[in-house]
Amino acid sequence: MPELLPQLEDSYNQRLNLVKPSKIRSFDNQISDIEGLVKLTIGEPDFDTPDHIKKAAIKAMQQNQTHYTAQAGTAALQEAIAGYLKRHHDLVYSAHSEIVATVGATEAIYAILETLINPGDQFVIPTPAFALYEPIINLLGGEVIDVDTSETDFKLSPTVLEKVLSENARVKAVFLSYPNNPSGSTLSEEEVHALAKVIKKHHVFVISDEIYSDLTYDKQPYSIARDLPKQTIYISGVSKSYAMTGWRIGFVAAPADFIARLRKIHAFMVTCPSAIDQAAAAEAFLNGDADIDKMRFEYRERRNVLFQGLTSMGLRPLYPEGAFYLFVPVPESFQNDDELFAFRLARMAKVGVIPGSAFGNGGKGYVRLSYAASMDSIKEALRRIKTALNDGVFVND
User: Which of 390, 200, 372 is nearest to 298 (CA)?
Assistant: First the structure.
């Protein structure tokens, strides 16, 4: 095996020193060797991709749709996305000038930030938040303003946002992600209106990551793009709602001037998404409404079982309004050490969860449980946690 020439050891992008590996994946890897572990760690739907979507991919291969596509996505996929956005979220975008198909929402996030960031630009991230935003901003030379929402019901307060934007002149964009990963909280229409009023006043972008918007249980999702179409950069994809995490199709919808710039970055990064995967995603957006309804119903049932089970044990989980995560404060004896508690839970109860500190300052002192796992796994996890609590193994002395 070749070894790197010693004189080249420091010949890399030094900003990589600011970026740490994903705490979600690294913690999951640390506990995955525990025999018999019930994993409620990764946000991976346990459902299979619906058959009609898989058949669309097979048909695309049989028709030799195995070559490059237009860089922003096939016309069929762009039109399917535009139709989905209008049908589900009352958003109107031009299929061919205001939508780009990406390699998952992950590429969408990176391409958006690469398009926006100049050195020193600031980005407001309400935490807890998906752990990908901050490292990309740091890598690209931007600065993160971490706004802890744990004292405001895990929702970004308009009053706090006004203060942050008034005191920081270099803010380029505000991140929103509701339903939220990891807390499961979401925003009502009235709450969106209040945030939009502040953002509009300060003439900044809002990057709205709505990958979980179809998995909202107790209220209808309301996108801030409806209030601020000229300032909103909208992100979503097929991974969560259609159980298509491995297909890697996401998208960005935004004003045409921004999309024209984003397309340059997107083209340099990936040329285009897989033609076969685009055909599958187009089928999902066109004919997958019933799939969303079925999975949403199942997730709601799992949420209820997990929430009620943990509550009956004396734990105090947040009641999630969307996504498929439960956020639970650690016992007081652990003094907010969520990583220690998560390790104890894995080693002594054989239940895998993710420490809340992986999601920023607002997540400290909590752990995240994913109910994208099967109902059997959820019930077994509850049985093990209850047994461990009764045995006193979670007392941190």
Answer: 372
Q: Is the dihedral of CA 109, 113, 114, 115 positive or negative?
A: positive
**In angstroms, rounded to a whole number, what is the distance separating the alpha carbons of residues 75 and 6?**
49
Compute φ and ψ for 127, nearest 5 degrees: -115, 150
- Look up the CATH architecture of domain 6-48+290-391: Alpha-Beta Complex (3.90)
Q: Cβ(269)–Cβ(111) under 8 Å?
A: yes
What residue type is assigned to position 303 of the chain?
R
Which overall architecture, per CATH, does domain 52-288 show?
A: 3-Layer(aba) Sandwich (3.40)
Hunting for tokens 């939220």 — which residue is that? Answer: 180
Cα separation of 161 and 167, whole Å? 10
Pairwise CA distance, residues 182 & 190, whole Å? 22
Burial class (CB in 10 A: 0-12, 13-18, 19+), 372: buried
Per-residue pLDDT in tens (0 to 9) along the chain, 397 residues: 899 999 999 999 999 998 887 888 889 899 999 999 999 999 999 999 999 999 999 999 999 999 999 999 999 999 999 999 999 999 999 999 999 999 999 999 999 999 999 999 999 999 999 999 999 999 999 999 999 999 999 999 999 999 999 999 999 999 999 999 999 999 999 999 999 999 999 999 999 999 999 999 988 999 999 999 999 999 999 999 999 999 999 999 999 999 999 999 999 999 999 999 999 999 999 999 999 999 999 999 999 999 999 999 999 999 999 999 999 999 988 999 999 999 999 999 999 999 999 999 999 999 999 999 999 999 999 999 999 988 776 666 5
Classify residue 119 by burial, with Cβ atoms within 10 Å: 0-12, 13-18, 19+. Answer: exposed
- Per-residue DSSP letters for 162-185? HHHHHH-TTEEEEEE-SS-TTT--
In the chain, where the domains are located? 6-48+290-391, 52-288
> Which residues 6+ apart lie within 8 Å of 159 measured at CB?
none
